[in-house]
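Journal club prep, notes for RB
We'll compare a predicted complex against what the paper describes. Inputs for the arginine case:
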Amino acid sequence: MSNKKTTVGMINSQVLAYTAGRDVELDRSLVAVDCIGTAAHVTMLAAMPVEPPVISTAERDRVIEALNTIRAQAEKGSFKIRLSDQDVHLAVERVLTSELGDLGKKVHTGRSRNDQVAVDLRLFAKEQLWHTLEEVAALAEVLVRFGKKHEGVAMVGRTHMQPGMPSSVGLWATAHAESLLDDAAGLFHLLEMNDQSPLGSAASYGVPLPIDRGLTAKLLGFSRATHNVLYANNSRGKLEGLVLGGMSQIMLTLSRLAQDLMIFTMPEFDYFKLPPAFCTGSSIMPQKQNPDVCELVRAKASRVKAAELAVYDLVKGAPSGYNRDLQEAKEPFMEGLAVTRASLQVMIPMLAETTVNKAALLAGFSPEVFATDRALEWVAEGVPFRDAYDRVKEELDDLASVDPSVAIGKKQHLGASFGLDWGGYRDQIKGIRQQTRKQKRAYERAIESLTGVAYQVQ
Ligand code: ARG
């Protein structure tokens, strides 16, 4: 096997391919954030109080211009990461050096690929979390609209999957919406934890130079720098695991929603109908309209949870400081985010076009569904609940049938079918969108003033 010349020495080709792993492809998603991180680093180097300066302000401007060109090339798909680069960091350094000569060789002063990749992943995470929040808000909105439209449509409420008490389509839909609102609150908490810059922690132990970590944090739109430089590196993997935990909560919500849809669209129920274009057919049975999207959402929930567990397992035994094991967290991290977002994106239009079969929902009611309501009528007449319960149990076969819409109309307390806070749901969804937009704009402004060119979170 031949050896290959790299920026960091001659490496056996087989070892190079094995150790670079999937970085050469995966790091394509990190080119923009890597350039932005380097722009902040050189800006800080140019401001560092040393004589002679490591980089002059004119040199800083040339580096930033070259970085902006790399970003533009990456957007067009013409920036290449070679196997001999190993990853995006050395690919960018190679291009800077070929464009700028000795100046390109200066950019790595006082940093390591370890803090570089850590900052890249945090920038990548925040952008992905904002997109996810927008998608979560959109699905919650679709569910609230669906619920409001069918607010008065009665639906059998089930426990143990058996008919239990009168409920409504509005209650069913907003239960899933409310779960998404909790998931969104979790994402904001993750954004807060992610909002710390590890840049300048270098290999894991800092550098003997008067670098200003607070300045790079500020230039990148972070509210602060991580403090301890060793923890800055140890937090890699922990952070990806936390973000994947947020994703797996969303997938849990989606999976239960998908499961409900699969049950309630079975011909035996026929409560809801999925839009035909969101169902797939069979190659042998001409009549089939299968809910494959729902099945795959359920399956992908397992994959996202597995990604979270994979990352946890990778770091749980990792010693302090950078270890190459951390590189393996990148793939489950990126995949978990992508799968969650794709699942949200397909559920939004599917739910928006799902229809309700009022007659089938009404046909689902039998007199027993009103048994508890009947017992509570006795209670209203002064009978102790346990006696009322026994009385109804004895007369189950003779229960009078009740109009389900009248029954649900009586459930007016907080959070029941006719006590739902529709305005509150709308305000929460609006709040998620406003907060996301505000954070995104502040970040875009920071990156624009750092790089001198327009920036949009992508
Ligand atoms: N691609 C590497 C990763 O993702 C970058 C850091 C490499 N650092 C090192 N000391 N070999 O972890």
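Talking point for the session: The longest helix spans residues 113-149.
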